[in-house]
Amino acid sequence: MLSRLGDTLLVLFGVVSLVFFLSAVIPGDPVDVMLGEHASSADREALRHSLGLDRPLAARWAGYLQALARGDMGRSLVHKRPVRALIAERLPATLEMAVAAFGVVLLIAFPLGLLAAQYPGRLPDRLAALFALAGQSIPNFWLGPMLVLLFSIQLGWLPVSGNRAPGSLVLPALTLGTSMAAISMRMLRASLLEVAGEAYLRTARAKGLGPARVLLRHALPNALLPVITLLGLQLGGLLSGAVITEVVFAWPGIGSLLIDAISQRDYPVIQGVVLVIALIYIVINLATDLLAQWLDPRTREGRAA
Amino acid sequence: MVRGTVRLVLPLLLLLLSACARGPADTPRALVFAVAHAPASLHPLLATDAVSERINALIYRPLVRFDAHQAPQPGVVRWQAIDASHYRLWLRPGLAPFSDGRPVRLADVAATLRRARDDPASPHAGALRHIQRIRRDGDHLLLSLSRPDPRLPARLHLGVAPADALARGDLARHPLGSGAFRLLAWQDDGGVLLQRRRDGLRLRFAVVPDPTMRALKLLHGEAHLVQNDLPYEMYPVLARDRAIRLQAVPGTTFSYLGFNLDDPVTGQRAVREAIAHAIDRQAIVDHLFNGHAHPTNTLLAPGHWAAHPGLPDYAYDPARARALLAGLGHGPGHPLRIEYKTSTDPFRLRVAAVLQAQLARVGIDLRIRSHEWGTFFGDIKAGRFQMYSLSWVGIRSPDIFRHVFHSASLPPGGANRGRYRSPEVDRLIDRAERLPRARAAPLYRRVQAIVHHDLVYVPLWHEDNLLLTRGVARARPRPDGGYGFLEQVSLAHE
Predict the structure, then answer these.
(1) Model ipTM?
(2) Per residue in B1-35, pLDDT tens?
(3) Which residues are CB-neighbours of B369 under 8 A, at least 6 positions away?
(4) Which of A24, A52, A71, A97 has the most other CB atoms within 10 Å of its CB?
């Protein structure tokens, strides 16, 4: 556990440093954003000095790390507000959409995956394969507006976008969850078919258990491990801000905050959001590993052999 | 296992369903204006992005406003020029108070001027630095300048805020002005909820970055107003809906093709003239803009007091373009290669593709390089380009000529992106700035004639401002794209 913590800190240090230096070398200047082009060179230099942007890069980096150690992510150059406050305002919306989209993934992937594995090569499996193909092929920026055309414009059931109106979470969650559900469903099916020929399933059938009971009680728990790992990664992706879906549905999460910050060269916000995303990924990965170890003791360190 | 799965899935299902019964939507009286970007700051003196400036114009009354010909008119103050270096400013009678009920005082005007001049983050600092002294003298302020400036009033288009609020420094989030609207709340999408002071009408700026979604929100009735920033082919489709009204007015946004004059290829005037003759601007306006733009020859919009009314056209003439290129040794077997930089905006990329096809017809091989906005703009300012296209938005003052064409305005201290150097243009600009409007106008027209002849840029078009409304009365778009019409609008069914 201690070694995992050390690894985590090392990864965070690497991410923070990489993003800091990349932000510094990408073309574009936050002073342009703040002053526009009409300002004189003297005014630009004065602002650069007041923001500390004229200090050597290494000194800025060291200062940033020191502040970060105190929990200070800095102030947005554009919004003139603490980055922590901006992220705290946006994170709940991202969490809300991620959890809902994860629900969609589970609701679609498990029934379809079980059905496909139960009837391999037959109509249910083929239909599930078709869904998987469509789900993975259709990009979110197209699927989103199509769902809006159907459910909002044609049927008038749901709002188009935003997060204020009743039901506004449904379409973003469906859009985001569909492609991930397709991948999870295929993984579950493959995993179930892999264990289908195992001796303990033959034993279960020989004991007279019905197909559904064999599938749910004996095959599914043993097929879950790779699916859980995949779901963990997907949840990490969802929680770290599904940028395209947030932009399409005007969903005020950290993904859209990051996009705005990049276009405005708001370095402290870029660094803060990426740090939070990295943290989320690390925590989710850790949780996934722990869950996998709990489900399958063979994966615990030192017992794999 | 089944029970476990149910335990996991059921709460998630309930969460999804709960989303269908959540949160109050806008009250029926709230007008919703869908915009592409959130305002970055509601500080009257520090905001630089277009949405912030337009919303600020609703919250703060300016010291000086502009009329239809972009001439300065009294706003919060009226002025008197004692001479070109000394001005008196009086408060106009009958001013609306600040939204907290306090009256606007001369001390607020003085604090506004000082903050705009002295704050390192103020985009107005450069234009106001020559205001040496701001002193109260009885019922007026006396401004003393370090150099004569007969057009100082045009530089005073600044929103007025209370002196103590300016000192506190939280106006960006908690604006306090004497304008027609006041802020009720920031929205979680970064937009704002305003209230019109005279009748309590609520107006919400909803941030909807995706243009298709903005159009769909209007179709669905979730938004009442959308202005510009939609693909042009969408306007007629939306206007077919009987509930939606489309209005267009000629705008002041000016688009042009810029050249790097330090480049050995685009530095040649003959190359630039060939490009000017090879481009069929009318065809682009007709087919890409659906007619919602107007080919132009100069940066200032028609009707501006300093605009040149009679610059000659570089007419669409491919034969002339080919002849010019042949004179430089280029032809079908030896095409001229030019790199063209643009942003990743889909519409600008379509324009680039059409330019590429039109230039190919005369033997120019245009290589399109599109970059994310920050990278693209950084390249243009750094001179890493041969040719590019950009627009000037909201131009009011002929000061733009110093900013764009004076040799002292090379980036990063100005926007002379093409690295144009003309001693004559420099002299004309320097002289014009010391003269009152009537005497400066001929000099500015001469500047326009010279840069037009030199083809520092190829002028393309002025874009219309297009306003789509649904269920809104008395909304009329303005040439500068400002939101001033919102002071009069009402919900149509009222």
Answers:
(1) 0.79
(2) 444 444 444 444 544 544 444 444 444 468 999 99
(3) B339, B340, B341, B342
(4) A97
A interface mutation test: which of B220, B369, B393 has the most A CBs within 10 A? B220
CB contacts under 8 A, B 19-78 vs A, are: 19-26, 37-38, 40-41, 46, 48
Selecting from B41, B207, B374 the residue whose C-beta is nearest the C-beta of A265 gives: B374
| Shortest CA gap B35–chain A (Å) | 11
- In order of their start, the domains of chain A are 91-304 (1.10.3720.10)
Which residues of chain A lie closer than 8 angstroms to B122, CB-CB? 35, 43
Chain center to CA of B109 = 25
The closest CB to that of A166, out of B1, B23, B189, belongs to B23
Say whether domain B251-463 belongs to CATH 3.40.1180.10: no
Of B1, B5, B413, the CB nearest to A40: B413
| ∠ CA A67-A73-A77, rounded to 5° | 115
Instruction: Give chain B's radius of gyration (CA, Å).
Output: 25
Q: Where are the domains of chain B?
A: 2-41+178-248+465-491, 60-163, 251-463
- Residue B342 CA, chain-centre distance (Å), reads 18
B60-163 CATH choice from 1.20.1530.20, 3.90.76.10, 3.40.50.1000, 1.10.3720.10:
3.90.76.10
pTM exceeds 0.90: no
pLDDT tens digit sequence for B227-256: 998 999 899 999 999 999 999 999 999 999
DSSP secondary structure, B184-219, as one string: EEE-TTS-EEEEETTT--EEEEEE---HHHHHHHHH
